[in-house]
Amino acid sequence: MSTRPLPSPADDELFRDGGENGRLMAAFDWSTTPVGPVEGWPASLRHAVRTVLVSRFPMILAWGPGYTQFYNDAYAELIGTKHPGAIGDDLRVTLAEGWTALQEPVEHAMAAREASWIPQLLLLLERAGYREETYFTVSHAPAYGDDGRVAGMHAVCTEVTRQVLAERRQRLLHDVASATAELADETATVTAMTAALGSEPLDVPFAAVYLAGAGDLRRAAAVGCRPEELPELATTPAELLPPAVAALGVTGGPFGDPVTEAVVLPLGGADGAGAGALVVGVNPNRALDGEYRSFHELLAGQFAAAVRNARAYAEERARAEALAELDQSKTAFFADVSHELRTPLTLLLGPIADTLAETGATLPADVRESLTLALRNGTRLKRLVDDLLEFVSIEAGRASAVRVETDVAAFTAELAGVLRAAAERAGLRLTVDCPPLPRPAHVDPRMWEKIVLNLVSNAVKYTFVGGIDVRLRPDGDDLVLTVADTGVGIPEAELPHLFERFHRGRGTAARSREGSGLGLALARELATLHGGGITATSEPGAGSTFTVRVPFGAPDAVAGAPAVPSAAARGGVVTPWDDVSGSAGTAAAAGTPGTSVLLVDDNADMRAYLTRLLSPVWTVRTAGNGQEALECAAAHRPDVVLTDVMMPGLDGFELLRALRADPALRDVPVVMLTARAGQEAAVEGFDAGVDDYLAKPFESAELLGRLRAVLERAAGRRVATAPLVAPAPTGADGAATVTPRPRPPVGPPPSAAPAGPVAPAQVAVRRHWRFPATTSSIPALRRRLRMLFAEAGLDEDRAYDLLLAACEAATNAIEHAQEPAEPVIDVGAEVRDGRVEVAVRDYGRWRERVPSMDRGRGSMLMSAVGEITATPSPAGTTVVIRSGPPLPSGDGLR
Questions:
Q1: What is the CATH number of domain 9-159?
Q2: Who contacts 186 (Cβ-Cβ below 8 Å, separation ≥6)?
Q3: CATH second-level architecture of 401-566?
Q4: Angle, to 10 degrees, between the axis of helix 290-359 and the axis of helix 186-197?
Q5: Sheet holding 150-159, edge to edge
Q6: Among 431, 469, 727, 829, which one is least packed by beta carbons within 10 Å?
């Protein structure tokens, strides 16, 4: 760019308002260009140049046959490094790389004297040191000289490269996202997405997807290149980028230039785990700037999300298949076990029934009653087995209704009447309204029997006052059975799950918590087999109505004898809450006078059985649920409570909490009976504060022994001089000697002293607990001791030390004792007049710890808090920790 001599005042006026470019053009030596010196310019050129310079919109003027350029500051920004060398130069030379696209509209404007408008014109520019893909919206118009002829070309332009690229990349992201529809397999998913990338190669000249496998990355899909040129496997994303991208021979961009650059994008999982990696080539005609990188990140995010979704879907599908397989296995198991149970049940029920039929009148009353109890509950078990087997057959598709012509009205009325006695014992009104039907109906009698009995017995179970209405009516081609009750109703949230197998409603009051959860599910399946269905409506607190609708149907077989309730229905429908033993009051004891047991169980047969078992030894009072038990205990304080866990209303654990919260009853020992077997259930019971825990089924001798032990421990707590845990003394030779321990009297506790404020040092507290011999019992022991020490008013530091020592002693008892006679430990604790005594006893022989088991703190920890004595014997070891009153303040170190 040459400079000219000092400008004249006229020249200054021409360039004065042109900004930076005006100053440059004023200093430029125009005499070296085809337009000549400024002072010789025609007025039309001067006017055109001044118009360009003062515009803030990018403008350029090409004048004369030499296409001499004049442009403003805004245009200078568009041509980058070509400025300021382009001032006064030939437009065809300055934009030589893009002249192919510009020549036609420029020459057309000059020759045809017609302006053009070209949106998003692709131009190749080399303004930033490389062949750049750019887009401009351009208008070319003729520029006229003083004589009215076309002397040049005006161009107004704006760059829209960013908008074009953004729209193009957005479309590509949309296409890639759309390619994942209805694809679940991760390889198929990424293959489809990668193929979508091939539809727009400008921004992604080539791509490859690698998925994480067993410790490596495997190539799953590729596009835009020969896959064999890319690595097949890699251990890290860094290994995926070929050493020389140019060696792949891929061309890209709108001008077909070689691709020499690529990026690797990790596909991160939602939890941070890598799902794989995406390799993409970079457009050789675009710089890898922030916007390009953001596009890559969005692209990688789409692939990562698609892989995660595909894997989640695959996992869910595998889980569903596993559940289906498990369900099929469970169905097969129920079928097999039901078949296997039928044989021993037959061999049990047959002889019992024969014995009662042949010699029942001559049997002693208690024997006859026991056999009747066994027969009744065996029949209930057989009915449950039959229901399971029938449900399994239905699910396996092996069951079908064999419809025969049946007097459904009479049959239904007779079936409902089977449960009339149970309803009346419950104080309910049972109304049966089944008038004759206008035409023959065809049902499977045995299936219809199960439908009716399940619905009516369910209504009795959940109805406490009012009544039950059984109604049968024709409705077009259907017959409709409705069973309505005035019971507790069904919560709205439970209605959708009402007919699911094994579903048990939560928080709903019932006469019993017993049941398999199959009744309503089986009723629905049986109705479905008849070509009908069952629905339910309910209002909590007002009652429920079940409606069965089945078609009158056609016969599948010739009818035989009229349908009547089966023998099982007539003799085996005994609701478990029925009091079959007469009054559930008090059974007098023939053994220990004055000792009372409060028996709590919602099953009448179980209450009757346990009453007969316990009443020869103790006075037995019974209750059908937790609430009744609380009222009975308040009226007659028992010496021990024997309770079931699963009961309607107040269950066993809630009853225990209520007893412990009552100052007058908190010391009453509680023994739980439950069908939940296993160590976890026992730990849960002991953690809740129960004194003993016995799983069903149990031996009668074991129950009696457990109750005696609990009563003795309870009596021992009330005798201040009795040892906490009786140790087994040793003789002179070191062998254990057994000294009979006098049994303390078993009876009601002495009257409690009046409540009132008591100084902590004066509070005397004594407790005894039994825990399973497992380390999971230690937290429960710690909680019990903490509560006891707090109740006794012990200093926090002293209580903390004693807690550590006692738990260490219990841990020793659990870890050292081998082959215990009982898998439990007994822990006794007493606080009196500031003196604390804790005793821990196990029931096995001790062995030494191996070094890996020794925490190195046992004896030192216990000895630090007081006097320690350990008394071993073949029957177990007792460790006693005694801590005297603390030193007066200031008399020693704590």
A1: 3.30.450.20
A2: 211, 220, 306, 307, 310, 311, 314
A3: 2-Layer Sandwich (3.30)
A4: 160
A5: 68-71, 59-63, 150-159, 132-144, 116-125
A6: 431
Whole-angstrom distance, CA of residue 237 vs CA of residue 211: 10
Q: Which fold has domain 169-319?
A: Beta-Lactamase (3.30.450)
The domain limits of the chain are 9-159, 169-319, 401-566, 586-716, 760-883
Structure token digits, residue 572: 């085996």
The β-bridge partners of 123 are 134
Tokens of 790: 């707090």
Interacting residues of 458 by C-beta distance below 8 A, sequence separation 6+: 519, 520, 546
Q: Which two tokens stand for residue 609?
A: 């059985």
Given a contact cutoff of 8 angstroms between Cβ atoms, the answer to whether 595 and 619 are in contact is yes
User: In 3-state terms, what secondary structure has residue 267?
Assistant: strand
- Report CA-CA distances (Å) from 316 to 183, 765, 775: 14, 56, 37
- CB-based contact 632:620 (threshold 8 Å): no
State the CATH class of domain 760-883: alpha beta
- What's the confidence (pLDDT) of residue 227? 87
Q: Does domain 586-716 have CATH number 3.30.1490.20?
A: no
d(CA 518, CA 645): 21
Question: What is the distance between the terminal CA atoms of the chain, rounded to a whole angstrom?
Answer: 96
| pLDDT per position as a tens digit, 109-157 | 998 899 999 999 999 999 988 999 999 999 999 999 999 999 999 999 9
Going by C-alpha positions, the residue among 71, 67, 106 that lies closest to residue 90 is 67
Contact 56, 74 (CB under 8 A): yes
Fold match between domain 401-566 and domain 760-883: yes
In one letter, which amino acid is 650?
A: L
What are the start-end ranges of the E strands in 498-627? 533-539, 543-551, 586-587, 596-600, 619-623
Residue type, 726: A
Of the listed ranges 105-119, 370-384, 557-571, 580-594, the one predicted with least confidence? 580-594
Among 80-89, 438-447, 467-476, 883-892, name the one with the lowest average pLDDT: 883-892
Strand partners, 74: none
Higher-pLDDT residue of 702 and 803 is: 803
Task: Note the pTM of the prediction, 2 decimals.
Answer: 0.46
Q: What is the pLDDT of residue 510?
A: 56
Which three-class secondary structure string do you get for 440-509?
CEEECHHHHHHHHHHHHHHHHHCCCCCEEEEEEEEECCEEEEEEEECCCCCCHHHHHHCCCCCCCCCCCC
Residue 355: half-sphere exposure toward Cβ, Cα within 13 Å: 16
Which pLDDT score is estimated for 852? 34
Position 595, amino acid: T
Q: How far apart are CA 379 and CA 580, in angstroms?
A: 15
Of 371-385, 464-478, 489-503, 573-587, the range with the lowest mean pLDDT is 573-587
Q: How far is CA 338 from CA 76, 350, 393, in A?
A: 92, 18, 11
DSSP for 170-189, written as a single string: HHHHHHHHHTTTT--SHHHH
The pair of structure tokens assigned to 554 is 């056609």
* The two structure tokens encoding residue 271: 């939890």
Q: Which two tokens stand for residue 749?
A: 């506790």
Nearest alpha-carbon partner for 143 in 118, 117, 109:
109
